[in-house]
Amino acid sequence: MDIKQILRPPPGDPRSPEQGGAGPVTTAADWGLLLIRLTFGLLMAGHGAQKLFGIFGGGGLSETAKGFAELGFRPGKLFAVIGGLSELLGGLGLAVGLFTPLAAAAVIGVMINAMATVTGAHGLWETDGGVEYSVCIAVVALAVAAIGPGRIAVDRFFRWGDGGWTEAAVALGLGGIGAAITLSL
Description:
Blueprint: H1 3-7, H2 28-53, H3 60-70, H4 76-96, H5 100-119, H6 132-147, H7 165-184
Helix pairs in contact: 2-3, 2-4, 2-6, 3-4, 4-5, 5-6, 5-7, 6-7
């Protein structure tokens, strides 16, 4: 597959040749969404890799498991794997625009857990150890699910690739349910 095929409007899009369209293949919005997805997605994936593999200055699975156990998550190793995989796979999914509502749900769920267990007691601002950063990440993930990942994404070939209320509700609902289950164990 070459770049022209990747950037071409999907079948059914009014701009596609099959529909007689001659509009732009990609827009500034598509490139802007790609920039947001790559930035947030790859940083989240890197954060998950820190937890799981100890790369990028992370403590690895053993240290992460100890931290989770200190927060009351038992067994710590299981929750470290769940948290690390949620960040890694959710981040990679956002970055490439694959299963965007599910990737957003994974990121939202992790951020809700972080706010409930670590940062929530410290108020809003990051300078005080508060929820500011986690809120920003969760909102960006939710917004990408609502808007859709854009045409420079794997999901552009699927129904949910356009985003919408349903996709946003799935991301927020699954992320919230996952967080609630994790916090209740």
